[in-house]
Amino acid sequence: MPKRLGQQTVAFSRPPVLLSTASVVGPEEGKGPLGQYFDVVKQDRLLGQKSWELAEEMLCEEACDLAIKKVGLTPQQVDFFLAGDLLNQIITANFSARTLGVPFLGLFGACSTLAEGLALGGMLLDGGFASTVLTACASHHDTAERQYRYPTELGVQRPPTAQWTVTGAGAVLMGLSGPGPVLTHATVGKVISMGLKDPADLGSAMAPAAAETIWQHLQDTGRLPTDYDLIATGDLGAVGHPICRRLLADRGLALGENFTDCGLLIYDRNRQNVDAGGSGCGCSAVVFASYLVPRLIAGEIRRLLLVPTGALFSPTSWKQGQDIPAVAHAVVVETPA
Amino acid sequence: MQVLVAFLVGGCLCALAQLVLDIAKLQPAHVMVLFVTLGAVASGLGLYGSLVRVAGAGASIPLAGFGHVLVQGIAEDVATRGAIGLFTGGFRAASLALSAAVFFAWLMSVLFNPRG
Amino acid sequence: MAPARTPQEAYQQTARAMQPRRPILKNTVLAFLVGGLICALAQLFLSYLLGRGVPQKEALAVTSGFMVFWGAFLTGLGVYDNIGRVGGMGAALPITGFANSMVSPAIEYKREGYVLGVGAKLFTVAGPVIVYGLVSAVLVVLARWLLTGRP
After folding, report:
1. Which residues contact B36 (CB under 8 A, 6 or more apart)?
2. ipTM above threshold 0.90
């Protein structure tokens, strides 16, 4: 069976197993509709640390620890650690890797990092280079505000297109055998830019990348949207998600009720002050780890297409007037029959 | 009565700034800079001084009033000291607000931590 | 609507049509109320000073300093960012917002130390206001001086 399908998709011949998943989130996420599902809900965004950055690192380390312990392993038994975050030089991932002591490859895909980790981890496993791979990503509302926007105490308004960076970390431990849902395909996205420049409207900037990757994935695999019980984009939010649906409809792909978005699932936008919904690489990571995977295990959904999306800009690039390119990767996770 | 006038004039300046922000989709820093500059120009034309006499704090507290204070101070110093006043008058006139801002900003950073 | 030329332009048209509108009317009214209220409070203090016989120019300066203190203090307490979220430019434009724009980076970057953090970042947002305020004031007075012969 060929390991490559079409132009951008890999099909795993030995589908890696998701041995365990774990999530640790902040208070705002705990108050959201998925609050009951997360493994740990912190009551304080600072986690008793000296800085937001240290708090983010704690989230990441705790999620990794939990994922490893859930299956009774130790970090020494993990072959590779693939992780990323949103901060400059991905310090959260780097410093978590220092604590964990597992051979480490740092990733940056902005909010699409989870899919990048799952895809690469799957390739390492299927290629025979590893028997256990841990992948994780983390984001923190205040570290992101501070780096990408303004100091947290500055009194500025948020436009209705703005999204709220999720404070949380998700970790996924993958292996070659054992019980659990399996990773069957990964479609690696191209970086796409439609010329949008507003950093307070990333949903619109990322929607074309998500649409392109979903379309390419279905082309490559010869599948239909109805072949999936659920298609979940990462963090397009209330602005980007309808645009993505519209772009796919324009290309003749009508998505139904089974098309959702992690950024819309994680918060109750009527009750919580999050404008267009959640974002950040922690967003798809915690929703996947604690809500989507358990539903796969329970059999409520049998086949999931997860499409995390990332806006690949920096404060420097947008101040210099560059537009905001975006990427989306798709992974297929299913419960073996 | 004076308080009501201050409320109305200050409120209108802020409402105008908000309209500029929302319609031109600018950052708050852009609008703040724009208003300081407009205040300086209006002061140069002799308009802002009249507004401060009528509206008091309603005109002096919004940032346009800061531009006005700078122009007023520079003009005074140029009148008394000549060209050197171009570079002495501005910060002299604004010294209280600027020194207070630097001092209290530093003090607050010692006393408090960000809450997010 | 003009016919779209490139796929980029076509997409931007589609996206713009589907983006939520900014609540401009609500924002403007809130900015008016919040900004007006801040100015009214400052006026109460100013009237008090004037009533006690403080000369106008000094009273105006002291009022500015007084409001700077409150803007700084409320930022330290973590209240001013919430006022700003509601009031928008109504909270940013008064001099209390200027204080907020200095205190918020000072507090935020405290974790990078008192010299490289607090000291260096204090003017990140307020700096442009001072720079363009002073430059435009110098130019305005200079122009008036050259044109009319009086500063």
Report:
1. B63, B64, B66, B67, C129, C132, C133, C136
2. yes
Ordered by start, the domain boundaries in chain B are 2-111
Domain boundary among A155, A175, A195: A175
Q: Is A123 found in the same domain as A27?
A: yes
CB C100 to CB A195 under 8 A? Answer: no
A8 and A153 co-located in one domain: yes
Residue C138 exposure: Cα atoms within 13 Å on the Cβ side: 13
Q: How is residue C145 written in tokens? A: 């001086």
Q: Which residues of chain A have pLDDT under 50?
A: none
- CB within 8 A of C149, min separation 6: which ones? none
Using a CB-CB cut-off of 8 Å, the residues of chain A touching C38 are: none
CB of B9 closer than 8 Å to CB of C39: yes
Whole domain around residue A246: which residue ranges? 182-334
Amino acid at A79: D
Domain containing A26 — which CATH number? 3.40.47.40
Q: Given A142, A157, A198, which is nearest B116 (Cβ)? A: A142
Tokens describing residue A208: 């074309």
CA A254 and chain centroid, separation: 24
Same domain, yes or no, for A8 and A91?
yes
Question: How many structural domains are present in chain A?
Answer: 2
Q: Select from A149, A175, A201 the last residue of a domain.
A: A175
On whether any CB of chain A is under 8 Å from the CB of B46, the answer is no
pLDDT, tens digit, 9 for 90 and up, residues C104-150 = 999 999 999 999 999 999 999 899 999 999 999 999 999 999 999 98
Contacts of C43 in chain B (CB under 8 A): 2-3, 5-7, 56-58
